Amino acid sequence: MRILVLGFTGYLGGHVVEHLRTLSGVRVLGGGRSPAAEFGIDLATARRERLVPALASAAPDAVINCAGATGGDAVTLSEVNSRGPAALCAA
What we know:
Blueprint: E1 2-6, H1 11-20, E2 27-32, E3 39-40, H2 48-58, E4 62-65, H3 74-90
C-alpha cells in the first residue's frame, strides 16, 4: 500500500511516518514544502489544478494530511488550514 503523508517532516507528520514505516507492506511517500519531499505539494498555496498532476504522479492508495499552519492571525490560519484540505479533496 502506498500512503502519501503531507507535512511528513512536521511534528505530527514525523510521528505518523514513524508509525507507518513499522507496518508491513506500506510504502510511505513524503509530500510537502520540504526540500526532502518526494512530491512537492504545498497546501497553503496549491490549487486543485496543480494538485491533480502531483497526486497522479504519486499514485497513492491513501493520503494522510498532516500539513497545516500553526502561526499567524485567525483569518490566515482559518484560510490556510481549511482551503488546503478542500483543494486536496477536490483534486
